[in-house]
Amino acid sequence: MRRSACAIFALVLVMTFSCDSIEGTFDDSVPNFYSLTTHASPQEGGTIQPSAGEFLEGNSVQVVARPAEGYVFDFWEGDLSGSSNPATIRFDSNRTITAHFSLRDYDLNIDIVGSGVVNETVDERSPTSVTVTLTAEAEEGWIFDRWEGDLSGNSNPETLTIEIDEPKSVTAIFVEEVIEYSLNVTIEGEGTVDRDPDKSSYPEGEEVTLTASAASGWSFKEWDGDLSGSTNPVTITLDDDKSVTAIFEEDEPEEYTLTINTEGLGSVDANPDREIYIDGDEVTLTANAALGWAFKEWRGDLSGSANPETVVIDDDKEITAIFEVDVDFGITINEVKLFIKEMELGGARRTRDFKTKDFVLNVPVDGTPFHITHVQIPAGFYDEMELDIAKPGSSVSIDDPDFRDGTGSYSLVVHGVFNGIDFTFRSDEDFQIDVDFEPHLEIKRGQTSVIAITVDFEGWFKGDDGVFLDPNDPQNEERININIEDSFSDFEDEF
Q: What DSSP assignment string belongs to 122-175?
């Protein structure tokens, strides 16, 4: 028996503690509610909304007194006072209110357009008039817009004074509430977005077409925010405030080539000079004519003769610079002198060979025959001539200073003008002229010694391309000597 008693005691103890714990938690979480009780005086004078109910502590509730036909609301009594209608009551205890109504003793007709009611409250009375306050109360989804009739404007509430013997008529205009939403459009990258229609706000359900236009060098990529995808234009329905971002991405720049050709002798400098150009690059081209040539014009993807000229790279370009021989550029030969180390004429028809040496031979530059004046050539017939051209030895006396100077002696001297600048070309090379006379050269008794040799002197100063070589440039000396030697070797075939 003792063991059972202990067990029962332990069980009761546990249950008691458990109940206390549950009650404590429950009491802390139960909110307080208070009741609303309403009365109308007289009872047939009208109703109150809400007419009753249980409300959470601390809540505020709007109550409206609605007069019956032929009655008007006068004032509140109980836990509400004053004549405001609607009025607000706060629940921090149980509330009881009474709405007092009175018979309307004035003539006021109230019409309603739309969905709503007009609450009517008497403010002041006199033997001849009454002042009432009219409060327009819209139904859900509607808003009060304005008064018409014996009231105007949109003030709400509004006061109206009514003479006892002068009926009044007022219309309350209610319109459906239009819910409007905003559409915010932002840009990432470079571009614009047109909206159609373009408004500051849109009524619920309106459709707006958005068109993204990329700036130059950019492309529209996609929509973000309340739109997605890359459809363009795209339509969005305004059923809430919307925010849309148009994302543009920069295009990869187009790459182009510039091919430069030349006709004639010259070159073209490109600045900047690259293998590949980006779309829109500007390149300055400068044509450089070779010596003896002149730039004429551009052809291909560039025209005209401006130099330098700028070309905009917006595609693959091919441009040709045209050069032509400069007619104002050249060489004039004024004097050619040879130092003849030895001259030999081969005799024919029983005429003996003839030799002479160490003399200066002035070669006519106009192509006329030259004269040998320092010695008389014997009369007779000659079938060949050999001229050895070499610089004078130190033992040879020579009066012409052109063949000797402080640096040495020379075999050939040319005086002339190159591109407007005087020049003297001296050669210390040895040359030989071999001429076969066919028919035989006849020298008559007493005749001045005459031998005709035609030489292309200007050819001595031209390169393979036909362009004149500057005689004043030491780098051209070797090539000019080769030209001279080649021209002398050709004499074999000229007679």
A: EEEE-SSEEEEEEEEEEPTTEEEEEEEES--B--SSEEEEEETTS-EEEEEEEE
Q: Which of 480, 373, 360, 471 is nearest to 410 (CA)?
A: 360
pLDDT at 158: 95
**Mind listing the pLDDT tens digit for each residue in 24-46?**
444 556 789 999 999 999 999 89
| Span 387-419, pLDDT tens digits | 999 999 888 888 899 999 888 999 999 999 888
Tell me how far CA of residue 55 lies from CA of 28, 35, 60, 66, 301, in angstroms.
Answer: 19, 6, 9, 21, 89
The residues that bridge with 135 in the sheet, in sequence order, are 119
Cα–Cα distance for residue pair 492/384, rounded to 1 Å: 10
C-alpha R_g of the chain: 62
Question: What is the band of 15 on the pLDDT scale with cuts at 50, 70, 90?
Answer: very low
How far is 208 from 235, CA to CA, in rounded Å?
6
Say which residues have a Cβ less than 8 Å from residue 107's Cβ, sequence separation at least 6: 162, 166, 167, 168
Q: How confident is the model at residue 366 (pLDDT cuts 50, 70, 90)?
A: confident
Count CA atoms within 13 Å of residue 50 on its CB side: 13
pLDDT in tens, 44-55: 989 999 999 999
d(CA 293, CA 274): 27
Residue with tokens 């009741």: 35
Query: By three-state DSSP, how is residue 12 classified?
Result: helix
Query: Concatenated DSSP letters for 236-272?
Result: EE-SS-EEEEEEEEEPPPPEE-EEEEEESSEEEEEES
- Asked if residues 224 and 245 have their Cβ atoms less than 8 Å apart, the reply is yes
Cβ-proximal residues to 320 (8 Å cutoff; 6+ apart), any chain: 260, 261, 262, 263, 298, 299, 300
Measured between alpha carbons, how far is 465 from 347 in angstroms, rounded to an integer? 42
Residue 310 contacts residue 269 (beta carbons within 8 Å): no
Q: What is the pLDDT of residue 363?
A: 87
Task: Please check whether residue 208 is in contact with residue 197, taking contact to mean a CB–CB distance below 8 angstroms.
Answer: yes
The whole-angstrom separation of Cα 107 and Cα 84 is 22
Phi, psi for residue 491 in degrees, rounded to 5? -65, -25
Phi, psi angles (nearest 5°) of residue 3: -65, -40
Per DSSP, the residues of 472-494 read T-GGGHHHHHHHHHHHHHGGGGT
In this prediction, what percent of the chain has a pLDDT beyond 90? 60
Q: Cβ-count burial of 259 within 10 angstroms (0-12 exposed, 13-18 middle, 19+ buried)? A: exposed
In the block, tokens 């003399």 appear at: 359
